Amino acid sequence: MQRKALRGTCALCKSAFSKSAMTRHLQSCMGKSQIDEKSTKGSSSLLKFFHLIVEGKFLPEYWMHLKVSSHARFEDLDSFLREIWLECCGHISAFRIGREEIKKSQKLEYVLHPGMRLNYEYDFGSTTELVVKVVSEFRSNIKASEVEILARNDSPQIQCSHCDRLATLICTECMYEDAGWLCDDCAEDHPCDKEMMLPVVNSPRTGVCAYSG
Ligand SMILES: [Zn+2]
Ligand SMILES: [Zn+2]
Ligand SMILES: [Zn+2]
Ligand SMILES: [Zn+2]
After folding, report:
1. What is d(CA 146, CA 140) in angstroms, rounded to the nearest whole number?
2. Residue 68: which of 114, 24, 100, 25 has the closest Cα?
């Protein structure tokens, strides 16, 4: 099933960019907005952050750029990813460098450095695999939370398997035969039990297990 989502939106300035242009855009956009000059505390109050890109390992059309405090722990990043993209029934998850698992209580600053790639898995049965790339390390005196979204892909436009409208529901019985993406009208006529249907959501876990956004 083709999922078209080449663009995303910068959370700082609300402009739209292609996936490939977003990294460079954020570097200049953050340069303008990540130091609050009005803060009186001066440069000694600057905190360290990582700029991360998280994307679906096999569904790279789902991606996010994140600003994460270097003092955050992997469990903070895990909770964030569950909240925004993954959580269906409390499955286990793991961050790995190569095959080695990282302790979730570990702080990011002791593990991450620019250029590094991590793997993340949610649910060891119907696994959703993500790749986490460390773009850079930077300082800022603006901190809203441990993990903040800098940019995110716009919802992919997924066509109904049976007509040319956009899919809004997924029949989990039929999705592996490429017949399970359904628009509202085709869902009405679809023979399977309505309980098998999940909403189409902007997440690499759409249609998997019981994930409903
Ligand atoms: Zn921007
Ligand atoms: Zn589940
Ligand atoms: Zn349809
Ligand atoms: Zn079906």
Report:
1. 13
2. 114
Q: Which residues surround ligand 4, an ion (CB under 5 A)?
A: 171, 173-174, 192
CA distances from 85 to 42, 110, 130, 179, 205 (A): 37, 25, 11, 24, 7
Q: Is the pTM of this model over 0.85?
A: yes
For residue 151, what are the CA distances in angstroms to 8, 54, 57, 92? 7, 11, 18, 26
The values of phi and psi at residue 132, to 5°, are: -115, 120
Rounded-to-integer distance, Cα 29 and Cα 44, Å: 22
Q: How is residue 157 written in tokens?
A: 């436009």
Choices 3.40.50.1820, 3.40.50.620, 3.10.290.30, 3.10.20.340: CATH for 3-153: 3.10.290.30
pLDDT digits (tens, 9 = 90+) for 28-72: 998 876 766 666 555 567 899 999 999 999 999 999 999 999 999
User: How remote is the CA of residue 91 from the centroid of ligand 2, in Å?
Assistant: 6
